[in-house]
Amino acid sequence: MSADSPGSGNQSACAIDLDFTHTFLPVVFVVVFVVGLVANACGLRSVCSRWRKLGDVSIFILNLGIADLLYVSTLPFLVSYYALGSRWMFGETFCKVTRFCFNLNLYGSIGFLTCISIYRYLGIVHPMKVKGKINSRLSVVVSALVWALVIVQISPDMFFNKTAPNSSDSCYDTTADGLAAAYLPYSLGWTFTGFVVPLAIIILCYGHIAYVLTANGSINVLLKQRCLKLVVVVTVLFSICFIPFHVLRNLNLQTRIAKLRGECHHSFDDIYFAYQISRGLACTNSAINPLIYLVGNDDFLLRLHRLGREARRTLARCAGAAAYRRAHEMDSMGVA
């Protein structure tokens, strides 16, 4: 059974209740649309205003923001689809475009996060070897290669049906049940090239960076803090957005194939619901990515620290004033 369609025929005994999907995903998409739109617009503005301070990495961050805005612009259509009980009203072509934008954003994000990690690695571990070699022109070329590789990986998805036979109402995130067996090998290969390989590169880069920063006490403390912030953000992105989605997408495809063979297990329901949650989490990467803009943005962090300090002082003054009024009222009651 597709993640978006009810069971039929001999699958009716193993049908899945889609109410959770129709409630959970629209709420997540609305939140991500609002937060992602505002955060990425503000983030891109910050990148453009601090272009020279950010260096060559700014080109990757700019591309990351463009990918996010492209995807969040499709979310209102997906909100409509799931809120209406999986009824797609915008045609199969636009359905494929919408799913294409999600994949473009997801794997573009992974690609540009990998590029940022490699640049950080080269700048910290091999600063003399790359001095004068890494420039804006190289970053533009690398960005174009990332887009090209991502498009090559996700383009085959456009050739799989996104609607059920004899129906134009559906807009599946993967493909129809009849093509699930053919889609699974593609999904596994896509997971390896688009996710596992970049994840391995990022782990190696940050592992070596951590070793160098720990072993070399002469490295600037601010640089260490910036690298730590980046490691935390990337770890959150991969742990929350990317790892669960890729694992559960392939598991869900396997359960759909098993159902077509007449198999039915209670675990299939658990996998389906977990997959829907992972889809929502994968979507949130468009709202979390703007944190990358803040890494190394000392001006913003300083303003945030000042606002926090002023807020604490204001609360302290309010609490003191309230305590004084209570004490004064108690004294007045005592006198009376």
Automatic annotation (TrEMBL):
Top-level division of the source organism's lineage: Eukaryota
Protein name: G-protein coupled receptors family 1 profile domain-containing protein
PROSITE patterns cross-referenced by the UniProt entry: G_PROTEIN_RECEP_F1_2
SUPFAM superfamilies per the UniProt record, alphabetical: Family A G protein-coupled receptor-like
Species name: Denticeps clupeoides
Segments traversing the membrane: 27-48, 60-84, 104-122, 134-154, 195-215, 227-248
One GO molecular-function entry: neuropeptide receptor activity
GO cellular component annotations of the record: membrane
Main location: membrane
Keyword vocabulary terms for this entry: Membrane, Transmembrane, Transmembrane helix
Annotated G-protein coupled receptors family 1 profile domain residues: 39-293
Intracellular or extracellular location(s): Membrane
Pfam families, sorted: 7tm_1 (PF00001)
